[in-house]
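Checked the freezer inventory, then went back to the computational side. Two predictions to log before the end of the day. The first one is the construct we discussed on Monday; recording sequence and tokens without edits.
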Amino acid sequence: MALLLGPAGIGLFGLYSSICDLTRSVAGLGINSSGVRQIAEAVGTGDAQRIARTVTTLRRVALYSGALGALLLLIFSKPLSRLTFGNHEHTEAVALLALAVFFGDVSAAQGALVQGMRRISDLARMSVLGALYGTLFSIPIIYFFRERGVVPSLVCVAAMGILTSWWYARKIKVERVRLSMRQITDETGALLKLGVVFMASVLMMMGTAYLTRIIVLRKINLEAAGCFQAAWTLGGYYISFILQAMGADFYPRLTAVANDHAECNRLVNEQAEVGLLLAGPGVIATLTFAPLVMQLFYASEFWPAVEVLRWICLGMTLRVASWPMGFILLAKGERKLFFWSEFLSNVLFVGLVWLGVGFWGLKGTGIAFFELYVVYWIGIYVIVRRLSGFRWSSANRRVMLLLAPTVAVVFASWYFLSNLAAMIFGAVMTLLAGIYSLRMLCTLIPLKRFPQLARKMIIFFRLAQPDTTV
């Protein structure tokens, strides 16, 4: 898409995506996220009737909320076009996004069912296949229609998502139940109590993404918005892959032991350690090869995004460290704490972006992201320390003391060394970080849990000893 559309087209893609996500956040009421928690709790009781009631209610509410979101976007398509682009020329395209909103909400509810049941392999296949099929159809649309095909491609991806999520959700056998009005009200209320908090959190996050793009668009231009979108996408891909993979099973497990402070804190430390070990080499590699990565995945026109990408990588390192702690608030149902921590962090980010773009131009968006997570990492630690007595384990402190200076030195090397020297130095540090992380992961995870090819490579390079137990 980057090759076919260029920076301005990718900027347009990011703005349309933000409108779609923002609408889904408003209409969805957070019930897909709260649905994971409700289903996980119901499964924990072993009560088939309770599971059936929760699943049936979730499906119905998702259908209605998706239809409501689509209707809202149709009604407000003209003012949204004016607010986003400064004119009414994009009204029809914004209205067409209503289909993507509807498909996305229904698909998310089906995904919540799969995740709540802890069918992690199905969840992974569902995500991969939905993205693959969406890509196979959306790329030809962009090829033939260029910028006019951006919205149809988003609708196409959402449509493929709903098909694949339905395919895997239908495998889960749930008893058929007839719900009375009282039961429907109770189940819906349970979903909405936490769901509204989730909605507020996601709404703030999507609203922040939307405002950030508007700030870049208005203060610089559409090409700069495209470069920001490119940096944001690449900076988040690897980390999002790690966080989503861990969160798929981590959140339901943490919810099940939320009242046991010691076990809760142990799980959070465990996830943080694995996350940092997985993220470290990837972050260092992205810092090192940012120019090549941008050229490979996008095009030479996106060169201004390279420095933004590096600053985002610094922030992503702190995001991995702080991310598991935030789940303590959700697992314990601390709605007010969760809401205010998210609200203040999003307001802070918008303010930092506004100031950053004014002082440093496009690079200021990346600096703002890093500054945000410095504050957030400290703040969330203080909150969970009081809430559950959380403390970093000695293993996590050791990993952070090794990872943080390494990331900082590789980042700084681009300002003090030639490009070639900085790349060679970064490549060496990436290799060393990779070896260290793999060795540590092999001590945490039984060798037999690795895929066969990975297991053979680990043994060949003597990163772990063969498992001789029968």
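The second is the one RB wanted added to the comparison set:
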Amino acid sequence: MIYLNGSPACVVTGANGYVGAAITTHLRARHWNVIPWTRQRQSSSQGEVYRLGEDVDPDLLRGIRALVHCAYDFKPRKWDEISAVNVLGSENLFQAACEAGVQSVVLISSLSAFEGCRSLYGRAKLQIEGIAQSRSVRVIRSGVIYGERPGGVFGRLSEQVKNSRFVPRLCGGRQVQYLVHVEDLGNLILGCLNGQVPENAGPVSIAHEHGWELK
């Protein structure tokens, strides 16, 4: 088991994205040794280059106690490409973690993943969830994530409102969004890593009970 100053090691994929970076900060503040896996080499010596869809060497995960899978590649547009990169890529990652003996693995999914969903993103996340649950990976379905420094989907919406002269409201802007603060998501992830969420719990959804219309 890899420890730094007595802290257990956790790999976070997509650690340079908004969610991955926020989770990395949250875990480090609670004495986890977080090893970032990102598309590009980071300035620090610690970390690995990781791209969804490529093979994963199990040796890179040996001695790691936990893995939080945040990475998702939005570049592919067609289903075959999405499946090859995101679905099969995630399956390769989970298989490597299993072979390496990683104790706790968490998938960050989305409330967009449900039976009958029409978006390709939701379909992909749903398939990844199925693979994850077959390998005892804990699945978290998150609402739209926000924090003191907006980023990701919420951040892009905020920037559009602040910087655009006109803001389009398709269908009157009645689409309902369910939000979750990044601190609450981080605490749930910690609960998963510490064994407070059973492996067989199924997807755990996290979002504020009050939905907000897009408008």
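For RB: The radius of gyration is 17 Å. The chain has five helices and twelve strands. Let me know if you want it refolded.
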